[in-house]
Amino acid sequence: MRLLSLAFLFALPLAGQVPAGAPKPRLELADTARRVPMPPAARPIPAPAVRDTGVAAVRTLLRSSFVRRQGLLGVVLYGPSFAMTVADKPVPMTAAYLVMAGGSFLAAAEIARDLQITDGMELLATVAPIEGGAIGAALQYAATGSKDVAPGVFFGSMLGTTGALTLGRRLSTGAAMASVAGANVAALLAMGTMYAFDEHYTQDRTRAGVGAGAAIAGMQLGAMYATYASYNITAGDVQTLWTSSLIGAAGGGALVANGHPGHKKTTLAFMGGAVAGLAAGDRLLVRRIDHSRGDAMLVGAGAVAGALMGSGIAVIVGSSARYNAATAGLGAAGAVGGVWMAERWLGARPDAGRRLGARLTVSPGSLAFAAARVPGTYSIMRFAF
Questions:
Q1: Is the dihedral of CA 142, 146, 149, 152 positive or negative?
Q2: What is the DSSP string of 13-29?
Q3: How far, in Å, are 282, 365, 368 from residue 359 at the CA level?
Q4: What sections of 229-256 are H helices per DSSP?
Q5: For residues 188 and 192, what is the distance between their CA atoms, to the nearest angstrom?
Q6: Above 60 in pLDDT, residue 55?
Q7: What is the rounded distance in angstroms from the CA atom of residue 87 to the CA atom of residue 82?
Q8: In this structure, are residues 185 and 219 in contact, taking their beta carbons and an 8 Å threshold?
Q9: pLDDT of 65 above 70
Q10: Distances (CA, A) of 66 to 118, 129, 168, 310, 316
Q11: Could you please report the per-residue DSSP string of 107-157?
Q12: Is the C-alpha dihedral spanning 147, 148, 154, 155 positive or negative?
């Protein structure tokens, strides 16, 4: 019996050995080894490798309207003025132009990456370089009398862009648009007044300097007008003021269209009508209605259509002169009717205003401390003007 047991013990490991040449069995230690393999048709197909050619990065940059506009300004404003400032021969001018045009695009891309560009900053950074270039050119002409004003244009545009990015971050789109409009209106009024009283047309340099100074002051006044007004002012509201001022100027021209009143009376009549149109637009349009920029364009189109109709009626009635009091007056009246029709078609869009609840702030905690007679100084109420 013992011999049989010993024989069984020696035979068991020998039976477990794998014959020579036979494959070794797989040792299954987990459930994953017993899973059914996925059929080839159901296996996921790996996505093909996409080669990065840099096009995606360029598209990302061009999606930013700030980068696009600054790049365009580099092509049409920064580049030409810089080239004419630093060179006077074709080859160096071309090189300087390419450097500034390309550098403008790269600088705009870097600024857009590092700064949060608000709508007010973007709008102001688009228009302020043009305004700054005009102001710089006027100041250089006033100081030197030379008509080569490329340096003034270049440095003025650079200062305009810098000021827009620095000061524009706290301005709304309405305030930014009002700032630009204020500069233009102030410059036109100042230069127009000097032109009206310049009998011999000899004060060109003085008029340019005064216009540049008035534009700088008007930019600040325009921003203050939109910021501190008791009613809401949008970018479209400011655009409608241009329409109303042109209608007023046409009405003022009707007063001096007949006869030969001279340049003084003519200039003052147009300017007086424009100012009256601004006041009427502020009272009747801006204070009552909030306009988008699309609304303002439609209002302007209505004014143009109405003015053409009114002038056409004046011609049909029998006016022999191309421009006289009847043509100007009926044209202005038709423009007013066109504005009314456009506003009626757009529907009711009441002004949002600066409500008392938004301007008046009460601190409950300070009221509680004051009621408990806790010693100290507390701001119970704040009122924003």
A1: negative
A2: HHHHSPPTTPPPPP---
A3: 22, 19, 22
A4: 235-256
A5: 6
A6: no
A7: 8
A8: no
A9: yes
A10: 10, 13, 13, 41, 49
A11: HHHHHHHHS---HHHHHHHHHHHHHHHHHHHHHHHHHH--S--HHHHHHHH
A12: negative
Cα torsion angle, 151, 155, 156, 161, sign: positive
Q: Please, are residues 117 and 66 in contact by the beta-carbon 8 Å criterion? A: yes
Of 38-42, 58-62, 113-117, 186-190, least confident by mean pLDDT is: 38-42
Instruction: Supply the pTM of this predicted model.
Output: 0.72
Structure tokens at 351: 């002004």
Both tokens assigned to 297: 């364009």
DSSP state, residue 31: G
Query: Which pLDDT value is given to residue 251?
Result: 92
Strand (E) or helix (H) holding 382: strand 381-383
H-helix or E-strand spanning residue 381: strand 381-383
For 14, phi then psi, to 5°, come to -65, -35
Q: What is the DSSP letter of 229?
A: -
At 23-32, the pLDDT tens digits run: 555 544 444 4
Under 8 Å between Cβ of 266 and 209: no
- Residue 240 tokens read as 């409608």
Structure confidence by residue, pLDDT tens digits, 310-355 = 988 888 876 555 668 888 889 999 999 999 999 988 886 777 665 4
Instruction: Round to whole Å and give the CA distance between 133 and 150.
Output: 9
The secondary structure of 254-298, three-state, reads HHHCCCCCHHHHHHHHHHHHHHHHHHHHHHHHHCCECCCHHHHHH
